[in-house]
Amino acid sequence: MSCQRLKDWIEERYDVEEMKRLARHKLVPVHQYEIWYYTGGIAMFLFVLQFITGMVLSFYYIPYFEHANKSIIEIVTKLNMGWFFRSIHHWGAQLAIMVLFIHAFSTLLLKSYRKPRELLWISGFILLAISIFFGLSGYFLLWDERAFAAVRVATGGAGNLPVIGGFIKAFLRGGIDVTGETLIRFYAFHVSVLPIITLALIGIHVLLVQYHGMSVPLSLEKKPQKQIPFFPNLFYKDLIIWLLVLGIVVSLATLLPPEIGKMADPLAPAPENIKPEWYFLFLFQTLKLFPGDILGLNGETIAIILISCGILFFFLIPFFDRRSSRGEKSVLFTWIGVFYTLYFIVMTIIGFVS
Questions:
Q1: What is the largest CA-CA distance in the chain?
Q2: What is the pLDDT of residues 16-49, one digit of tens each?
Q3: Is 56 exposed, middle or buried (0-12, 13-18, 19+ CB in 10 A)?
């Protein structure tokens, strides 16, 4: 079928002109903070990249503890371009989580969560949490010493939560300790449960963005706004940025392929100087601030409770910041946003260099 015949076939069935008209009439505001508009699109592009490379790798990965580590080594060493797809998948995940953190903190500082965009903030927060679990579950599929220790620490930390901690820990591990059952469970999360939830949430998030339109910073909301068409102006900029991001991912994948550690032994002690993945470092450093015993109570449990309260407050910020919802300046929540952003950056750097 020629291109013209295919075009005619589609146009007989769908009102393409109406869709083109809709795209041309969609306008986006232009201002000095518009750079942050692109972080959401970059994250979506990286998700697509992860789905494609993840599907390729799933054909050759064996989710059984005696073969998992060996199957990844064989993907990297024996499969044609296997090392490249595995490396792309690794660096794509790192950049996706980083971009989502940048997207969340920029939304927080620009107060784009304010009424009527509360559900956008909530769906974005859940997407960030799922992405972190995506990263952790994917890391564990390596079944090497460091991944094994990291999952044992992470699930053990979740177990310190009062009341529901024991259930969460047992549910994630599929038993009392981290075993081959945990590997199967994390594989199921990584290739089926999390992708389905992620696709649904991305759909909701994108629909909400289209419904509400691009947010304008509070400080500029009452000033005259210059607008440009989404198509082709912003759409072409998005494509250019995605191409640049693809170049960065390919360069990192080629120059810095990730290592594969020694196969995990559940009975062996954890490797020395082990650290969690970079997106857990701020939590890791926070736990270090608390001694083992505080007034007769377990210091780690107190730290986990305080961290959970901080995350819950972060999640509920749109409902606490009433001044921003009324279109008024909200200095307190500006400083709260600055505190959250700096705390994450500083504690991550300290955790990385210490």
A1: 78
A2: 888 778 777 888 888 888 888 899 999 999 999 9
A3: middle
- Model pLDDT, residue 1: 59
Confidence of residue 342 (pLDDT cuts 50, 70, 90): very high
Identify any residues that bridge with 294 across adjacent strands, giving them in sequence order.
Answer: 297
Alpha-carbon distance 86 to 216, whole Å?
39
In the three-class reduction of DSSP (H, G, I as helix; E, B as strand; rest coil), residue 299 is classed as helix
Sequence-distant (6+) residues with CB within 8 A of 243 are none
H or E element that contains 210: helix 194-212
Least trusted range by pLDDT, from 230-234, 250-254, 262-266, 335-339: 230-234
Per DSSP, helices labelled H in 28-81 are: 37-58, 68-77
**Residues 168/172/175/180 CA torsion (nearest 10 deg):** -170
In angstroms, the CA 257 to CA 72 distance is 13
The position carrying tokens 């210059």 is: 226
C-alpha–C-alpha distance, residues 282 and 306, integer Å: 13
pLDDT value, residue 33: 84
Counting every residue, how long is the chain? Answer: 354
Which residues have C-beta within 8 Å of that of residue 166, sequence separation ≥ 6?
159
